Amino acid sequence: MITVIGNLCIILAYLFSLNLHTPMYFLLTHFSFLEICYISVNIPKMLSNLLFEHKIISFYGCAVQVYSFGVCGGTECYLLAAMAYDRYSAICHPLLYSIIMKRVVCIQLLIGSYLVGSANSLLHTVLTFTLPFCGSNKINHIFCDIPPILTLACADTMINQIVIFVTSICVVVGSFLLILVSYVYIILAIVRIHSTSGRKKAFSTCTSHFTVVTIFYGSVMFMYLKPESSNAIVQDKLVAVMYTAIAPLLNPFIYSLRNKDVKIALVKMYHKLMVSKKHLSES
């Protein structure tokens, strides 16, 4: 609930604050919406399973969960890359920023992120759930994820493993390299700024995004690009909790507490709400 409310506050702050109607906050708003979807895919079912002795999910329910989770995860990778490109444009090309990051470009980046996430997730879901399952039906994980599901298949999963590795390189590592290149140019541009206050201001616009990238990519890369190990089941579950529950919980606080514009917008929105509530009570 805290995660949903925190991300919803950022969305509402953008909608009701004209000073936030910039490319950076446009992308941040959609990132917050994606975080709400991301946590809504797995966490409600996981929490309900904690209340019951028999932890059950249907075959098709598991397939929907895998697909939805994949869409959110893949989209988030390239949306974070789009946000890094936005910061690169703002710091390295400030005079051309409004032209480079015009509305249509932001929409194209957003649609492209969703297309990559959807296509990647559809490929994995189809390959996974067309396999024969004739043994155990117990998934040793906190939600329906592809690696633990593949251990239940009665057929050779080598093709699935190869596809997971290749697409992880394209989606996860590919988007991370785009972010890395953006930050290399950003750092080089900031170093060339002569004033200390100018460098500090430039760094402050990137710290929130860099923190989110570190948490998200660190846990995802550890989960999907590490070598297989029979002793890593508990470790995998802990890492999965990090990027499915903890990261979406921390993100709205990271962006709001370290961002002056968002804090001002949230305070204004709160005051407007209180005034409206007072007028209603008086009438």
Task: Give the CA-CA distance, first to last residue.
Answer: 32 Å
CATH topology description? Rhopdopsin 7-helix transmembrane proteins
> Radius of gyration in whole Å, from Cα?
21 Å
Number of strands: 0
Q: SSE order in H/E notation? A: HHHHHHHHHH
Number of domains: 1
Assign a percent range to the helix content: over 70%
Mean pLDDT: 84
Query: What general form does the structure show?
Result: globular
Just give the CATH class: Mainly Alpha
Biggest beta-sheet profile: none
Low-confidence stretches: none
Q: How many helices does DSSP assign?
A: 10
Protein name: G-protein coupled receptors family 1 profile domain-containing protein
Keywords: Cell membrane, G-protein coupled receptor, Membrane, Olfaction, Receptor, Sensory transduction, Transducer, Transmembrane, Transmembrane helix
Domain G-protein coupled receptors family 1 profile: 6-255
Subcellular location: Cell membrane
Q: How would you portray this structure in words?
A:
The structure is a single chain. The chain has 10 helices and no strands. It is mostly helical and about 280 residues long. The protein has a single domain (about 1-280), classed as Rhodopsin 7-helix transmembrane proteins (Rhopdopsin 7-helix transmembrane proteins). It is globular, with a radius of gyration of 21 Å. The mean pLDDT is about 85.
